[in-house]
Design brief:
This protein is about 15% helix and about 25% strand. The chain is α+β, with helices and mostly antiparallel strands and about 230 residues long. It folds into two domains: about 90 residues, 2-Layer Sandwich (Alpha-Beta Plaits); about 90 residues, 2-Layer Sandwich (Alpha-Beta Plaits), CATH 3.30.70.1560. Strands 1, 2, 3, 4, 7, 8, 9, 10 and 11 form a nine-stranded mixed β-sheet that branches. Strands 5-6 form a two-stranded antiparallel sheet. A hairpin with a 2-residue loop joins strand 5 and strand 6. The protein starts with 7 loop residues before the first strand and ends in a 23-residue tail after the last helix.
């Protein structure tokens, strides 16, 4: 067993998979069960089925609440492939915050990525592309997680999102962020003993204490959907 707390895993969620362990009736998307045969864990935060990247799975209800409570604002880092070539003014708007239908977004950190900074294998199935329209990769650090927020933000500056990956999560404890290093799409790993100790401290779970009950695996988890 890794660490003192309940099981916690990091998954590189692939495209086309819901952030839950039971399929939805009539849905064309898959679920997590075939990828992660570990009982009792559930997603702490969500990624939409058409998004990819880092998903933390845990059996610790206290940790789930700590990571998804918007008052703590744990930064999430996203790599976003957009259609078009956003201008410096577009990036400034994304960074300063824009007005969406559900209110203004918080300030964010935004930068353009060079090709060498995008290590991700091609998506399966491939993204749609147009020969006459360029695409650009951006890095966005957000402290909030509204429904499909990244996609709505890039659309608001005229650069629709083509591909979206969550690549890291900052625990705000002075240590390195949790990230996708070493994980191919569909792969997962238990957190390391040091990562588990950090997560235990974050959740306020001491050795030998009784963790809060997790949500049922078939239910939708909290937000932080993109």
């Amino acid at each position: 067993m890794v660490g003192s707390g309940p099981a916690t895993l990091l998954l590189h969620k692939p495209y086309g998979v819901l952030s839950q362990f039971t399929p939805e009736a009539g849905s064309r998307w898959g679920c997590l069960a075939p990828l992660v045969p570990v009982p009792g864990v559930y997603a702490a935060g969500r990624l939409d089925a058409d998004s990819e990247g880092l998903l933390l799975l845990t059996a610790d209800g206290a940790l789930q609440r700590r990571l998804t409570d918007p008052c703590f604002g744990h930064p999430r880092r996203y790599h976003v492939q957009v259609e078009g070539d956003p201008t410096a003014a577009d990036l400034q708007r994304l960074a300063e915050g824009l007005l969406l239908r559900d209110g203004p977004t918080r300030p964010a950190q935004v930068r353009r990525l060079a090709a060498a900074e995008v290590p991700w294998p091609p998506r399966q199935p491939p993204i749609r592309s147009r020969l006459t329209v360029p695409t650009t990769w951006l890095e966005l650090d957000l402290r909030e997680g509204r429904n499909r927020q990244v996609r709505r933000m890039t659309a608001a500056v005229g650069c629709p999102t083509l591909r979206l990956l969550r690549v890291a999560m900052d625990l705000l404890d002075g240590g390195p962020p949790l990230d996708l290093e070493g994980l191919e799409p569909g792969a997962w790993r238990p957190v390391t003993p040091e990562e588990q100790r950090r997560l235990d401290r974050l959740a306020g779970v001491s050795r030998g204490s009784t963790p809060a009950s997790p949500r049922r695996r078939g239910r939708r988890g909290p937000s932080h959907r993109h």
